[in-house]
Prior knowledge:
Blueprint: H1 2-12, E1 19-20, H2 28-31, H3 33-41, H4 43-54, H5 81-91, H6 93-108, E2 110-111, H7 114-140, H8 143-178
Parallel strand pairs: 1-2
Helix pairs in contact: 3-4, 3-8, 4-5, 4-6, 4-8, 5-6, 6-8, 7-8
Amino acid sequence: MAASQDKLDKMKLRQDYRNLWHSDLMGTVTADTPYCCISCLCGPCVSYMLRRRALYNDMSRYTCCAGYMPCSGRCGESKCPQLCLATEVFLCFGNSVASTRFLLQDEFNIQTTQCDNCIIGFMFCLSQVACIFSIVACIVGSDELSEASQILSCCADMVYCTVCACMQTQHKLEMDKRDGVFGSQPMGVPPAQQMSRFDQPVPPPVGYPQSYPPPAQGYPPASYPPPGYPQH
């Protein structure tokens, strides 16, 4: 119970992260339109490729749902990580997208803007409302209400697919920046224990002098990775 509470507290501290996504959700469609369309048409396949890329194509680093779910580390990932990842992205697609997002956020201290939070929150709320309408329509037995619930469910599915596609495009753009696609110096591969900072101390909030690097147009800061990190 204490461990779960500790994880929830650390999740709340993501609001203190100082870096921003290379592109917000609204800008992903124009930033990489072809990839956004592919993400919408074949989300699980894109999720698989993005998780591999987030792990620097080293599947020995793979953990189910990136270590953020109770099942993580208990699914035999070490024996067959490729099969476990394929199962994750097809059976738990939403969790796979969210886990890759958390992995990138915690590795690079990236915050989610209020606009992005509103878009994601709207997606979840619309899905819940559609589910409630479907239940009510089933209980009441009204044809009009049933038709309305089906329309609402269709809208909720469209929003879900669109937002997930934009999120995955956002992740892809962030890793493009990480890998030097936009002209910046590519990062070295960090050690496995540093892939997720979820269990690492969270940087102090804004206002602590010299204790955390100031906001920058790109990341990581000039001193990243620290001396001694292996370079590949």
